[in-house]
Specification:
Strand content: 35-45%
Organism: Aquibium pacificus
Structural class: mainly beta
Protein name: DUF2259 domain-containing protein
InterPro entries: DUF2259_secreted
Shape: globular
Pfam families: DUF2259
Keywords: Signal
Helix content: under 10%
Number of domains: 1
Amino acid sequence: MTKLLTAIFLLLPMLAGGPARAGNVSELEILGFSADGSIFAFEEYGVQDGSGFPYANRFYIDIASDGFVPGTPIRIVLQDENASLGDARAQARAPGQSIVSDAEFAANRGHTAGANAITELSADPFRMAVNPRPVIPPVDDPIEFRLEEFTLDAQGCENLGPTMGFRLLRIDLTENGSVSLVHEDDSIPRSRNCPLGYRLGAVQTVHPATGEPSYAVLIAIESFGFEGPDYHWIAVTGRL
Protein backbone atom coordinates (compact mmCIF):
# COMPACT_ATOMS: atom_id res chain seq x y z
CA MET A 1 0.00 0.00 0.00
CA THR A 2 1.43 3.31 -1.05
CA LYS A 3 2.26 5.48 1.89
CA LEU A 4 1.30 9.04 1.20
CA LEU A 5 4.08 11.47 1.94
CA THR A 6 2.85 14.65 3.53
CA ALA A 7 4.67 17.91 3.34
CA ILE A 8 2.30 19.85 5.58
CA PHE A 9 2.64 21.07 9.15
CA LEU A 10 -0.47 21.56 11.26
CA LEU A 11 -2.25 24.89 11.30
CA LEU A 12 -5.50 25.73 13.08
CA PRO A 13 -8.24 25.47 10.46
CA MET A 14 -10.58 28.41 10.39
CA LEU A 15 -12.69 30.39 7.97
CA ALA A 16 -11.93 34.08 7.67
CA GLY A 17 -14.95 36.33 7.33
CA GLY A 18 -15.15 39.63 5.45
CA PRO A 19 -12.85 40.56 2.56
CA ALA A 20 -10.57 37.97 0.99
CA ARG A 21 -7.17 37.76 2.71
CA ALA A 22 -3.88 36.22 1.70
CA GLY A 23 -3.08 32.65 2.62
CA ASN A 24 0.30 30.97 2.50
CA VAL A 25 1.72 29.38 -0.66
CA SER A 26 4.79 27.27 0.09
CA GLU A 27 7.72 27.55 -2.27
CA LEU A 28 8.78 24.18 -3.67
CA GLU A 29 12.44 23.25 -4.08
CA ILE A 30 13.14 19.89 -5.71
CA LEU A 31 16.45 18.74 -4.23
CA GLY A 32 16.93 15.59 -6.31
CA PHE A 33 17.82 11.94 -5.88
CA SER A 34 20.59 9.97 -4.24
CA ALA A 35 23.28 8.65 -6.57
CA ASP A 36 21.59 5.24 -6.85
CA GLY A 37 18.12 6.72 -7.29
CA SER A 38 16.80 5.15 -4.10
CA ILE A 39 16.00 8.38 -2.22
CA PHE A 40 14.14 11.47 -3.40
CA ALA A 41 14.07 14.72 -1.47
CA PHE A 42 12.31 18.05 -1.70
CA GLU A 43 11.91 21.15 0.45
CA GLU A 44 9.03 23.53 1.00
CA TYR A 45 9.44 26.85 2.74
CA GLY A 46 7.70 30.13 3.39
CA VAL A 47 6.22 32.42 6.03
CA GLN A 48 3.17 31.32 7.98
CA ASP A 49 0.06 33.39 7.51
CA GLY A 50 -1.18 34.75 10.80
CA SER A 51 2.02 34.31 12.85
CA GLY A 52 4.54 35.62 10.33
CA PHE A 53 7.00 32.91 11.41
CA PRO A 54 9.41 31.57 8.75
CA TYR A 55 9.40 27.80 8.23
CA ALA A 56 11.23 25.20 6.17
CA ASN A 57 10.37 21.52 5.80
CA ARG A 58 12.54 18.86 4.16
CA PHE A 59 11.26 15.46 3.09
CA TYR A 60 13.47 12.46 2.29
CA ILE A 61 11.62 9.58 0.66
CA ASP A 62 12.66 5.94 0.33
CA ILE A 63 11.36 5.18 -3.15
CA ALA A 64 11.22 1.40 -2.65
CA SER A 65 8.69 1.78 0.17
CA ASP A 66 7.34 5.25 -0.71
CA GLY A 67 7.91 6.08 2.96
CA PHE A 68 9.97 8.57 4.91
CA VAL A 69 13.66 7.86 5.46
CA PRO A 70 14.25 7.34 9.22
CA GLY A 71 14.83 10.62 11.02
CA THR A 72 12.80 12.61 8.52
CA PRO A 73 10.90 14.74 7.67
CA ILE A 74 12.80 17.70 9.07
CA ARG A 75 10.46 20.53 10.07
CA ILE A 76 11.66 23.91 11.29
CA VAL A 77 9.51 26.85 12.42
CA LEU A 78 11.33 29.84 13.89
CA GLN A 79 8.88 31.42 16.29
CA ASP A 80 10.34 34.87 15.90
CA GLU A 81 8.97 37.45 13.47
CA ASN A 82 12.46 38.92 13.17
CA ALA A 83 13.99 35.61 12.07
CA SER A 84 14.74 35.24 8.36
CA LEU A 85 13.59 32.63 5.92
CA GLY A 86 17.25 31.94 5.22
CA ASP A 87 17.76 31.07 8.88
CA ALA A 88 14.90 28.57 8.80
CA ARG A 89 16.18 26.94 5.62
CA ALA A 90 19.70 26.67 7.00
CA GLN A 91 18.45 24.96 10.16
CA ALA A 92 16.45 22.48 8.07
CA ARG A 93 19.39 21.85 5.75
CA ALA A 94 22.03 21.05 8.37
CA PRO A 95 20.71 17.73 9.78
CA GLY A 96 19.91 16.43 6.31
CA GLN A 97 23.56 16.37 5.25
CA SER A 98 24.16 13.19 7.24
CA ILE A 99 21.32 11.46 5.34
CA VAL A 100 22.19 12.51 1.79
CA SER A 101 24.27 15.60 1.17
CA ASP A 102 22.97 18.48 -0.90
CA ALA A 103 26.03 18.04 -3.11
CA GLU A 104 24.93 14.48 -3.96
CA PHE A 105 21.39 15.67 -4.67
CA ALA A 106 22.70 18.47 -6.90
CA ALA A 107 24.74 15.97 -8.90
CA ASN A 108 21.69 13.71 -9.33
CA ARG A 109 18.82 16.16 -9.52
CA GLY A 110 17.26 14.27 -12.38
CA HIS A 111 14.92 15.88 -14.89
CA THR A 112 11.80 17.97 -14.34
CA ALA A 113 9.72 16.26 -17.01
CA GLY A 114 6.67 18.41 -16.32
CA ALA A 115 5.82 21.35 -14.07
CA ASN A 116 2.78 23.53 -13.34
CA ALA A 117 3.12 26.46 -10.95
CA ILE A 118 0.22 27.05 -8.59
CA THR A 119 -0.28 30.37 -10.35
CA GLU A 120 -0.56 28.70 -13.78
CA LEU A 121 -4.09 29.23 -15.11
CA SER A 122 -3.89 27.57 -18.52
CA ALA A 123 -2.47 24.18 -17.47
CA ASP A 124 -4.58 21.14 -16.66
CA PRO A 125 -4.26 20.66 -12.88
CA PHE A 126 -5.41 17.04 -13.10
CA ARG A 127 -3.40 15.65 -16.02
CA MET A 128 0.31 15.64 -16.86
CA ALA A 129 1.76 13.63 -19.75
CA VAL A 130 5.54 13.61 -20.16
CA ASN A 131 8.52 12.07 -21.85
CA PRO A 132 10.65 10.81 -18.94
CA ARG A 133 13.92 12.18 -20.36
CA PRO A 134 14.93 15.15 -22.54
CA VAL A 135 16.06 12.93 -25.40
CA ILE A 136 14.91 13.82 -28.92
CA PRO A 137 13.66 11.68 -30.55
CA PRO A 138 12.38 9.97 -27.38
CA VAL A 139 13.94 6.68 -26.32
CA ASP A 140 11.39 6.05 -23.54
CA ASP A 141 7.68 5.40 -23.63
CA PRO A 142 5.69 8.48 -22.59
CA ILE A 143 3.76 8.31 -19.33
CA GLU A 144 0.78 10.19 -18.01
CA PHE A 145 -0.40 10.86 -14.48
CA ARG A 146 -4.00 11.76 -13.73
CA LEU A 147 -5.31 13.15 -10.49
CA GLU A 148 -8.90 12.54 -9.42
CA GLU A 149 -10.58 14.20 -6.43
CA PHE A 150 -13.44 12.79 -4.41
CA THR A 151 -15.27 13.80 -1.28
CA LEU A 152 -13.82 12.19 1.85
CA ASP A 153 -14.50 13.13 5.46
CA ALA A 154 -11.59 14.43 7.51
CA GLN A 155 -11.48 14.32 11.30
CA GLY A 156 -11.89 17.75 12.89
CA CYS A 157 -13.22 19.34 9.69
CA GLU A 158 -16.91 18.53 10.11
CA ASN A 159 -18.09 22.17 10.26
CA LEU A 160 -15.97 23.50 7.42
CA GLY A 161 -17.77 22.03 4.45
CA PRO A 162 -16.71 19.12 2.22
CA THR A 163 -13.12 17.91 2.34
CA MET A 164 -11.42 16.09 -0.50
CA GLY A 165 -9.33 12.98 -0.98
CA PHE A 166 -7.53 11.99 -4.17
CA ARG A 167 -6.37 9.10 -6.27
CA LEU A 168 -3.39 9.15 -8.60
CA LEU A 169 -3.40 7.06 -11.77
CA ARG A 170 -0.54 6.18 -14.09
CA ILE A 171 -1.43 5.65 -17.74
CA ASP A 172 0.65 3.85 -20.33
CA LEU A 173 0.51 6.00 -23.48
CA THR A 174 1.66 3.22 -25.79
CA GLU A 175 -0.76 1.01 -27.71
CA ASN A 176 -1.22 -1.04 -24.55
CA GLY A 177 -2.98 1.87 -22.86
CA SER A 178 -3.01 0.21 -19.44
CA VAL A 179 -4.07 2.18 -16.35
CA SER A 180 -2.58 1.50 -12.92
CA LEU A 181 -3.50 2.89 -9.54
CA VAL A 182 -0.55 4.62 -7.86
CA HIS A 183 -2.36 5.92 -4.79
CA GLU A 184 -5.92 6.21 -3.46
CA ASP A 185 -6.89 7.78 -0.15
CA ASP A 186 -8.92 5.74 2.29
CA SER A 187 -8.58 8.44 4.96
CA ILE A 188 -7.23 11.97 5.25
CA PRO A 189 -4.24 12.61 7.53
CA ARG A 190 -4.63 15.45 10.02
CA SER A 191 -1.51 17.00 8.53
CA ARG A 192 -3.47 17.97 5.39
CA ASN A 193 -5.43 20.47 7.47
CA CYS A 194 -8.90 20.03 5.94
CA PRO A 195 -8.01 19.80 2.23
CA LEU A 196 -10.17 21.64 -0.27
CA GLY A 197 -8.53 20.28 -3.40
CA TYR A 198 -5.39 19.14 -5.19
CA ARG A 199 -3.41 19.87 -8.33
CA LEU A 200 -0.45 18.29 -10.09
CA GLY A 201 2.66 20.39 -9.59
CA ALA A 202 5.58 18.50 -11.14
CA VAL A 203 6.97 15.18 -12.30
CA GLN A 204 10.65 14.59 -11.55
CA THR A 205 12.50 11.60 -13.04
CA VAL A 206 15.95 10.10 -12.72
CA HIS A 207 17.87 7.43 -14.63
CA PRO A 208 20.88 6.72 -12.39
CA ALA A 209 24.07 5.10 -13.61
CA THR A 210 23.49 2.39 -10.99
CA GLY A 211 20.02 1.67 -9.66
CA GLU A 212 16.52 1.72 -11.08
CA PRO A 213 14.93 4.66 -12.91
CA SER A 214 12.51 6.42 -10.58
CA TYR A 215 9.96 9.20 -10.49
CA ALA A 216 8.36 11.56 -8.01
CA VAL A 217 4.99 13.24 -8.55
CA LEU A 218 4.65 16.51 -6.62
CA ILE A 219 1.08 17.41 -5.67
CA ALA A 220 -0.09 20.73 -4.26
CA ILE A 221 -2.79 20.62 -1.58
CA GLU A 222 -5.14 23.54 -1.05
CA SER A 223 -6.29 23.63 2.56
CA PHE A 224 -7.80 25.94 5.16
CA GLY A 225 -5.34 28.47 6.53
CA PHE A 226 -5.41 31.30 9.02
CA GLU A 227 -5.94 34.19 6.59
CA GLY A 228 -7.03 32.33 3.46
CA PRO A 229 -6.36 29.10 1.55
CA ASP A 230 -2.91 27.58 2.08
CA TYR A 231 -0.94 25.52 -0.43
CA HIS A 232 1.58 22.91 0.69
CA TRP A 233 3.22 19.93 -1.01
CA ILE A 234 3.26 16.16 -0.90
CA ALA A 235 5.07 13.66 -3.10
CA VAL A 236 4.20 10.21 -4.36
CA THR A 237 7.15 8.19 -5.66
CA GLY A 238 7.69 5.03 -7.69
CA ARG A 239 9.76 3.23 -10.30
CA LEU A 240 9.58 4.02 -13.98
